[in-house]
Design brief:
Elements: E1 3-5, H1 11-30, H2 34-41, H3 45-58, E2 65-68, H4 76-88, H5 104-115, H6 121-130, H7 147-168, E3 171-180, E4 208-218, E5 221-232, H8 244-258, E6 262-266, H9 275-283, E7 288-292, H10 303-313, H11 322-337, H12 340-345
Parallel strand pairs: 1-2, 3-6, 6-7
Antiparallel strand pairs: 3-4, 4-5
Helix pairs in contact: 1-3, 2-3, 5-6, 10-11
């Protein structure tokens, strides 16, 4: 009798599990002990004992995969239709708009509506798992976002930016802003099951460290990253964030550090659209060209990846005050500056095709 699989495994997972069992057979034949096999294959002792018993009864053939324990009620054509309907989202099927996610109960109801086939909640879980679906935290997108506009603007602005950068021999630079208060991002830690750990952080919310950052790419040169900080202490009349002249000075500093013309790409933040910045770009058009990315599309900006790395490094960081937080942010960002592979790694996740803009690090260009 062949070895039956759990109904929730995908075909790939079934193949992997079968390969483990067949690898265990070789060790059974060589006389290896249960504890040794479990440690080498990274499985439990109980699994090894169960496999050994099946092997003794029927040999290696008894450990071959027999597929899922139950036969699917849906045909392949019905599953394809169900998958297509699931991708449309629950709102398209009249479910409550207060919760925009699929639950096992909702999928069960949808199967009944579409095919008049009864499934249990556990059966739905096994069905989804078998076809490679899993429960995930969704990405958030703005309601004002327009995919048609983004695809059109992104294609035109990026193509124009690449062409301009190639013509000028310039770095193409993606700029963005972020901020961090004394309350740190949440991170994960190990603790006894059922005893949730406590991380002590500052209770007051006064003050904030604002960060302007830019990642720069150019063919034949290593990727670069620069940043500028603005500490807001919460005092009356104090500017809360960067002004247009701060961005002007930041652009000029990046240009001097790179030693080449720059093609500057950023979003449509109000301060980015001030006339003074357009006048500044026009005045220095021999080395500066500015393009704007489409609205509500942060995933197109590689600088967002830097913020993700920074927040991961600051997870559960208990800062005593703003000075302590500022020092930590500077230290984390400087570590990223000296690791070009981290900067380059932020580009592919955006899906942008910048052919030829990234090469191996150039030692002569080191800071």
């Amino acid at each position: 009798m062949r070895y039956a699989q759990g109904g929730g495994l995908t075909p790939a997972e079934q193949d992997k599990r079968e390969a483990l069992r067949l690898e265990a057979v070789k060790r059974f034949e060589s006389g290896a002990g249960t504890a040794q096999i479990a440690a080498e294959l990274r499985v439990t002792d109980r699994s090894v004992r169960r496999w050994r018993a099946a092997w003794r009864r029927g040999g290696a053939a008894a450990l071959a995969s027999a597929g899922p324990m139950s036969v699917e009620k849906l045909t392949s054509q019905q599953w394809q239709r169900l998958e297509m309907e699931l991708k449309r989202g629950p709102l398209a099927h009249g479910f409550d708009d207060e919760h925009q996610g699929w639950t096992l109960k909702r999928v069960k109801l949808l199967i009944g509506r579409l095919f008049h086939i009864g499934y249990t909640v556990q059966g739905v879980w096994r069905l989804l798992r078998r076809h490679g679906w899993s429960c995930q935290v969704p990405l958030r997108r703005s309601l004002e976002r327009s995919e048609e506009v983004i695809e059109g603007v992104e294609g035109r602005s990026l193509a124009a930016g690449k062409t301009t950068a190639a013509h000028m021999g310039a770095y193409i630079c993606f700029a963005d802003e972020a901020g961090q208060s004394l309350i740190p991002p949440k991170g994960r830690t190990w603790a006894p099951r059922g005893a949730r750990p406590i991380v002590r952080v500052a209770g007051r919310r006064g003050g904030r460290v604002n960060i302007a950052g830019v990642v720069c790419f150019k063919a034949g040169r290593r990727a670069r990253m620069f940043f500028k900080l603005h500490v807001y202490l919460g005092r009356r009349g104090e500017p809360k964030s960067f002004a247009w002249n701060d961005y002007r000075d930041f652009i000029r500093m990046v240009h001097l550090q790179l030693g080449t013309p720059v093609v500057w790409m950023w979003d449509n933040l109000n301060v980015h659209l001030q006339q003074e910045l357009f006048d500044f770009a026009e005045e220095h058009k021999d080395w500066l060209v500015i393009f704007h990315l489409p609205p509500y599309a942060p995933e197109l900006n590689p600088q967002e990846g830097i913020w993700s790395l920074l927040k991961r490094a600051l997870a559960d960081f208990a800062a005593a005050d703003l000075a302590h937080l500022t020092q930590a942010i500077k230290r984390k960002l400087k570590k990223i500056q000296y690791r070009p592979h981290l900067i380059e790694g932020c580009l592919p996740t955006t899906g942008l095709d910048l052919n030829g803009l990234i090469n191996q690090p150039d030692i002569a260009d080191s800071t």
